[in-house]
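From the shared-data thread, chain only:
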Amino acid sequence: QLQLVESGGGLVQPGGSLRLSCAASGIGFEYYAIGWFRQAPGKEREAISCISSNTGSTNYADSVKGRFTISRDNAKNTVYLQMNSLKPQDTAVYYCAAEGGETYGCAYTGSSFYGSWDSWGQGTQVTVSS
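Structure, as tokens:
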């Protein structure tokens, strides 16, 4: 399994941008899909973006599509989430997770991205407020 550490969160004004990083340690990072999830106070965890291991296919929740971009640098064992045009409703703790099994190119199941997502980071807080 991979060990994951998120960074890059903080306080930003509406309309601003942040770039989150998910740094992984362990063997075989390039063989894992990486997903970004978020959880706001009092709300269920939301799957927001995923990048696959082989083709680098990406997928996004409708709530962030067109504003967030996921990318990966296998040489650095890191996945990034570029977040633009941030809104107050984007305020949440953001987590990355790794899936070493099949995700069918980060297919969306209706509630999450396909996979069991066994490895998780500790999360990073993003607050969008004026």
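The two ends are 39 Å apart (CA to CA).
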